[in-house]
UniProtKB/TrEMBL annotation:
It comes from Aspergillus saccharolyticus JOP 1030-1. It comes from the Eukaryota. This is Transcription factor domain-containing protein.
Amino acid sequence: MAADFQFIAIQSNGHVNDKAMRRQARSHAIRKALERRRKEQQRSRTNFIVTTFQDPSLRFKLDQAVEAPKSFTRTSPSPPAPTYSALCGALDPFQTLAVNSARLQALLGDYRARQAPEPVFSVAEELAFQSFRLVFRTGFQDPALINSVMLALAFAAAGGSLDRECLQYQGQAITYLRERMNSEDEAASEATIGAILLIAGVVARLGLASQVELHMGAVQQLLQICHRKNVHLTPGIERAVFWQDLNSSLLAGSRRIVSHTTFSTLLWTRDDCPPGFYRLPPGFQCRSHMLDHEFSVVLEDLHALQCIRNIPRPRQTDATRMLHINNHTASIQSRLMALSGLSRSQECCRLAACLCSMTLCCKIWSELVLPSHISSLLLCKLREVRDDVDATIWHVPNSDLLVWLLYIGGAFAPRGPIRSGYVELLVSYANGSWSEVHDCMRQFIWSDGAFLVPVRALWREVKQSYLR
């Protein structure tokens, strides 16, 4: 208690001795008032505010950290720490977040965790239009959102395991969300929607369809509240809702709450590309009689996306161009998911087309868990079809289609039994030379820039296995 008092000598008339003493008394009073205010803010969790830095050089660095973090590749032995860790340190110098800032920085420096926020927000340079700040218009001060971010990062760092740390963040996030959902005015915000989406992404990875539907149902209610109250949401959070809904449906089989036509920000038409791009590749054109009409139209749009991918791109990422590609891809994947009543052979082609749409134009999409998941589904479907005597894709006239399906599926399969399963089938049915395989692949959906490296690596594995 002694530190709370400052003793100052005074004269008999009650005045402070000199100007120095008066300054000392005033300084002490101000300091103690600030301390009391800070403690009160900490108790009420209002001690973190977003501020605008006046230093132009610092502002530039922070903008760079948010808008254009350094990209990374899977093959890099020691990828650099993302600039989000620097951002956290700059905005939280007094450890005022609802989570441990040092742990946040450590998780952001973990390579396995870097894709965790996808698709809610992105740290990839080519997806800078989906940066944290553009999606949420805020910093990390929202306790529900930051705990959900920590949950997603810790879950990915743990290899997809819901350990004690993850459960702690999940519990904290849900506690804050429950309190907030008591008031429509507090609940109707990007931060609340984003927090729920991140939790939904984790339970989707675990395959818990019922829990995904519970969380996405809450998101649907919040969207309705925002619409009723005329709350303007950012295009980024609308994209986050669409992609998390779609990805969760792919991973866990949950019911979808939105489509590619729900949000105006995602609307896409064929007018965005030259008309000549919209045609079936030669390998599908000669089999058009086997394809459902709606499926054929989607494949034409996918071929147009392939043509866009094959156009030489500048080194500097064009955000507007990536937005168009994102909308184009959203339309393709959403319609592929909605297709029903396809034959078993067409279902194999649908899964391969979905895999191509994920990996054609954006490197980070090919590094997410979804391509490997679709790859495993395709392998299971191909094995099922192989046992069906009426399945046309295993007949000799369709051997080129089978080669494409096996190589596209196997190229993005993770090391282990799934990839080994593809190698086994390729050794038995498609062990030609690389030039033969390459020519065959180019008859269907194909891009050297997107597929050449992983497909050729798989071909080498097949050759090694064949020669043993």
